[in-house]
Known about the structure:
Largest sheet: 9 strands, mixed
Distance between the termini: 39 Å
Helix content: 25-40%
Number of helices: 12
Oligomer: single chain
Structural class: alpha+beta
Amino acid sequence: MTPTVTNPAVINSTASTNHTGEKWIVVGGGLTGSALAYELAVQGRQVVLVEPQDPLQGATRYSYGGIPHWSATNPTTQYWCDRSLARYDQLEAELEVDFQRRSVTLLLTIAATADPDAALAQHQQFATAPQLLTPAEAAALEPALNPTVLSGALALPHGHLCPLSLVQAYRQGLVRHGGSVVQARYTGLRRRGPDPADPAATVTGIETSAGPIEADRVVISAGGVSRSLLRQAGLAVPLYYTQAEVVEVQHQPGALRGVVMPADNRRFALEAEASQADRDAQWDQPGQELIPASLDPGAVQFQNGRLVLGQTSRTWSDLQPPIEASQSEREIRAEIAKLFPEFADLAGTWHQCLVAFSRDGFPLVGEVVSGSGLYIFTGFSSPFIYVPGLAEAFATAVKTGVWRDGPLQVCSPDRFFAAPV
């Protein structure tokens, strides 16, 4: 794992001939934070990445690691898909850790009660049209599948990687470029001005469980926790999160060849409904379940044999809602057993994490309040196809100063209402 620095005072004295002198703190060391910290360091910024968990236990760890390069629906999303794919090619050459990028087949299963032609029609808006398979053809690609519960499946060329290996690669690259990783818990912003509590006051760093860290700029990139952190800073930003629940099997060789997910993915409908503007007040009230939970049975296997089965998605206003873990695990296993009978009794562990999303499915990237030095980089519904390109573009915008007239304008927080609480 990347070396960590436990004494933030060390950070204030860190120097490098490549640094511009401008100091940045990135809060959150998952995929988004690690990618952004690395790209900022490549551009010569002095960067501190702050993350409390080692090893990671959040959304990055329990994600499927899929790269849906087929999923563009318009010129904007196609641009970012292409940019990230190009960046992946460069990263494979410049990072010193193999993050196991590969090409696989994504199977989108269609339930026996559903019309396969209708499912195919619903997926025609994507840049790459899927191939409709019979249940037998789907089982030939993934022998563990039970064809009797399917009316068919959609097959798509799909990218895949190991999320933890990619984070490790980014972090080690950050350190090589003179950056640092601090294992500590963020506890608040440091600001200057006549009223430091003013959300527009200029940031001067952050407070952490290991002490203060000074900086010229701060980026909140903490996934589902980001909404809460911004609220603590006096900012109401339309950022939301689901509690995602999966079962992790540590080692089961040869279980799957690719990635399997349902064609009717209910999580996206849940996110769209839960993020409607008229529900914002509920998000700020404790103990609110905004939308009934959804369960999308799917599975992915990594090259080390680790198997992730899931997933249940819930929208609660609480970061730690009253979820009965054993009941949730039984529900996930019951649905998985229909698709993959041999997976039903595999020894595994239930996990829960927060997954951030925005109102329109596109991330929030940019300065939250103009001139404050506080930025946001989170809310990625499809992180592995968008994060590499957007992290590179963020760092380029920092270097050039071009934000509003550049490609990042489409994901600026300004497209939504963002103002003091």
